[in-house]
Amino acid sequence: MARGLALSAGVTAFIALVLLHETCSATAKAHPCAPSSCGDIHDISSPFRLKTDPKNCGDPRYELLCENNHTVVYLAEGRKYYVQEINYSMYRIRVVEPVIQKENYIDISTPSNSLYRLLQYYYRSGSQETDLSLELH
Question: What is the membrane topology noted in the UniProt record heading this document (predicted)?
Answer without folding.
Answer: Single-pass membrane protein
